[in-house]
Amino acid sequence: MVAGDEAADYVRNIKVHNAVRLRIKGRWRRGTAVLVPDDDAALRLTQLPSFNSAMVRALGTKPLTVRVDLE
Questions:
Q1: Fewer C-beta within 10 Å: the chain N or C terminus?
Q2: What pLDDT does residue 4 have?
């Protein structure tokens, strides 16, 4: 997942408490969020569906990759 820059509130929240929940196909899943600042977020955007990457490009300023390891 490509997210916003490190100033974003949810990025600061992940740094403090990285337990997250994601809704996948209608089911809530628990996981651990990991910031991946060394990942090439621009390259990763080319691998996502075009609608998703267009929204990130339109709304984001400094993309940051967040990996979520599901339990």
A1: C
A2: 54
> Starting at the edge strand that comes first in sequence, how are the strands of the sheet with 27-36 ordered?
2-3, 64-70, 27-36, 19-24
Instruction: Specify the long-range contacts of residues 25-31, CB closer than 8 Å, at least 24 apart.
Output: 29/70, 29/71, 30/70, 30/71, 31/68, 31/69, 31/70, 31/71
Report CA-CA distances (Å) from 47 to 1, 4, 9, 20, 62.
10, 17, 26, 23, 17
What φ, ψ does residue 28 adopt, rounded to 5°? Answer: -80, 130
20-to-1, 37, 40, 51, 71 alpha-carbon distances in Å: 13, 18, 23, 24, 10
